[in-house]
Amino acid sequence: MVAPAADGTTDFSLLQNELRRKSTRIVMVAFDLIYLNGQDLRKLPLI
Fold first, then answer.
1. Spans of the chain, pLDDT less than 70
2. CB-hemisphere CA count at 13 Å for 20?
């Protein structure tokens, strides 16, 4: 999870502050996905 700043960067202290209250700014960033929309991605090239 990250909380992007106004300039698009992320900052751990900003995330901590957002977690202390009901925030709509927190987003989940997924990487190293092995499945997407039911498709196995493990055999695809890394691009």
1. none
2. 6
Read off the pTM.
0.53
Cβ atoms < 10 Å from Cβ of 40: 9
pLDDT in tens, 8-17: 898 899 899 8
Residue 40, token pair as written in the block = 């196995």
Please give the tally of structural domains in the chain.
1
Structure tokens at 36: 């997407």
User: What is the domain extent for residue 20?
Assistant: 1-47
How large is the greatest C-alpha to C-alpha distance in the chain, in angstroms? 41
Neighbour-count burial of 29, counting CB atoms closer than 10 A to its CB (0-12 exposed, 13-18 middle, 19+ buried): exposed
